Task: structure prediction
Amino acid sequence: MYKILHREDLTPQIHLFRIEAPAVAKKAQAGQFIILMVDEKGERFPLTIGGWDREEGSVTIVFMEVGKTTRKLATLQAGDSIHAFIGPLGIPTHTDNVGTVVCVAGGFATAIVVPVAQALKDAGNKIISVMGFRSKDMMFWEDKLQDVSDELIICTDDGSCGRKALVTEPLKEVLETHKDVKLVIAIGPTIMMKFASATTKPFGVKTLVSLNPIMVDGTGMCGCCRVEVGGETAFTCVDGPDFDGHQVDWDVLMARQKSYCDEEKTSLDLWEEYCRSQMGGKA
Result:
């Protein structure tokens, strides 16, 4: 069992947990992920590591309530425990000193981008960050991303904070005005990463994305997380999660992500019905 040392609600639907996991914290690196189970009968699902404290022996995760499992996870409080917390898994993000790097964060993936940007900054790179949210009330950690960036551009879909724009617009402008950009790292919703990669391709700038396909065991045995990259099959859990965004077959990835939509909806409906029954029929 892995104890929750701290809980913080970043927004009503996005939560931060600091988990007591000394073995994971000891080896965690930027870009890697963990697989957790809320309880012994729960599903296994991956979350990218949002930070760690080797001295305390803790690992930080940030998640958004979407389906049954994330909503169930959100019912836990500091002092409660998680059944399983396995990691670190995956290949760490390469954080060599290449010069100027643009980090693009979409929504709650800001929690993933911050440790990556920090590692790149520590390696001596100049960091230009672009973060995008649907609206101001969904924003968090803009101060943390600002601290590890030489320049930060904020945009929202509705214009409630920063620019009213999608992240691809300022990304294109940065590439047009900063000819020294050597690397773009884009992390967020699949559709955002797809179009960020399409934006950078004409400029010939290397672009890394962190993929999030369906995953079960996290060790390459089940094959559920397979993706097509450069015309070949790769397994996100052992070959990634970072891949060349210009080589990813985005259509195949998005189709596979929809494989269990009906089952996921049924599971959520049953969970909500159970919760209502526990509350005496109240919503």
Remarks:
- The mean pLDDT is 92.
- The chain is about 30% helix and 30% strand.
- The first strand starts at residue 2 and ends at 9.
- The radius of gyration is 19 Å.
